[in-house]
Design a protein that fits this description.
about 140 residues, alpha+beta, disordered C terminus, 4-stranded antiparallel beta sheet
Amino acid sequence: MKKWDDKGFSLIELIIVIAIMAVLMVVLTPFLLNYVGEARLQKDEAALNEILHTTHIALSVDRVYNESHSTGIVVYINDGAKISSNSDVLETELQRLIPDVVEFESKEYKSRGGETIGVTYSNPHGRFILDPSWVDGEGDS
């Protein structure tokens, strides 16, 4: 008679391992989803800061600064659309520097029913300040 070798795992051992993995997944999933949400928010804030720096570059051109500064500098950012501005010269320069559409991933910056982020630039002490706020339907393109 052939002897039965005990190679491998028993069914009970496999069920216990699967149960432990399921408990770990249930406990860790909310933490992982929170990290994903935070990463998306940080990516969107980095995109807004990139737009701020790009606006600094665009405003370094004298003709863009002179025309834009007289009207006040407001840049409209709508999820899934190109950047627009209340100044045609600034808008043209920004679209040249950032040719792609802006796409946000976080819940905080995703388009909320046609709302747009209106970014106003103020210049106290020779520095531009990014001040985003939600506006209804302004600057849609």
